[in-house]
Structure formats: structure tokens, C-alpha cells
Amino acid sequence: MPRNLGGQYQAIPSPWADYVVFSFPDASVVREADQPDVMDAMNGIIAINWKAAEPHWTAASSPFESKYRLILVYDHEALVAFSVYRMLDVGGCLAIYRSGTEVLPAHQGHGLYGFFTSEVLKRSGAAKRGEASVLYGWRTRNPIVWAANAKICDKVAPSLLSEAQDASLQAACVAMCASLYPGKALELPGMIMRGAYGHIKHHRQAYHGTASLVDAAMSRLIPNSADALFSVGYARV
Question: What is the reported pTM?
């Protein structure tokens, strides 16, 4: 897929000279003719970052459904990073769910994950409404991702690094999971989702700082590589 997505779409301001960013508040506006190439590129990044037994995104489980929002980042040659997310109502409150974010290894460390997070929070509109925080959910077994998302939250469930548990966030976890993954039960209080990653396996690495503490907690809670933690926090906006 070329840098300008065929000239059909308007890029948004990019903090980098070397990256072009496209943001779609409704992922279904990506033309059907463009979708296969974009999906292949997204799956290609996932296959590098994970041990993938099969494609994560498919025509039957497409990132171009209208329920999704999508941010794509290209360098001069190809897609290098993407973020898929959703806005939904959980118990009458606006909530964000990070459905999936991946960055090619060669482009990690450039601030792309943080940029995605800032864009997602900004586009929720919570700050414009004068709200101090917004419900913010994600599912992962990557300690770095968990630590990065927990860092922007005042409180998180499950609270991996503290004994304190927030009952309202635990309830939000259950409600959000039920809305996103009907029939998928969460094991409380750890908010464990069994078999979430049966088709892909996380590449373990050396972790440092907070991520090393999260990794130790995850190793105790979810030693099976197919399992994940479903987390919800109050993200500061």
C-alpha cells in the first residue's frame, strides 16, 4: 500500500517528518479495494511481533467494521504501525477499548505507542467535555503494554502491583468484557480471560523496571501463553 493510501484519504498532522498518519473514526470508510492490502500489512506486523499460527484479522473478523476506529502509520515505503480501538457505553459511561496496537520492531522506541494513546484519548472527546478521566480498557499478556496503559490510569483492575482492588472497576471489567466478547467469562479477581490468544503467542523478552514486576505477576496469574488479562482503568485525559 503506498504512502498516501492511493490519494483517497487525508492524512492528519504527524509529529514526525518520516511518518504519515491516517486516522479513521469509522474504519469502514476505508475502501473495500484497499482493505485486503491494509489487512495483510497489519497481519504481517502481528506475525513479526508474535508467533502467529494464523492471521489475526480476517474477512470474518475484520478491523474495517464500523464499530472500530483505526489509526495507520506509514513510512516512505509501507505500514509500520497501527492501532485499532473502540468507543462504547459501559453502564452509562463512555469507555475506550484498545482492540489492538502493533509497531514493527525497527520502529519501536520512537514514541508511536504513546502517540496512539494520546490520539485515542483526544478523540474520545472526554477532555472537551470537561471530564478528568475516562474508562479505558485493554487485553494483553505483554508486560510492557500492561505497564504503559496502567501508567496513564489513576486506578486499574486488576491491580497487579497493589493489594487494593476497586469494586467499581472490577464491575466495569465484567461489563466491558461481556459487551465486547459475549460468552467469554472472566475469572475474578484476576480478570483472567482463558484462551484469548490460542492462535498467537507472545514473544517473551527481558523486562526492566515496572514491566519486570508486571511480568512476575503475570507469570503467577497466567502461566499459560494462551491466557490474557482483561484490564480497565480510569485514564487521565
Answer: 0.94
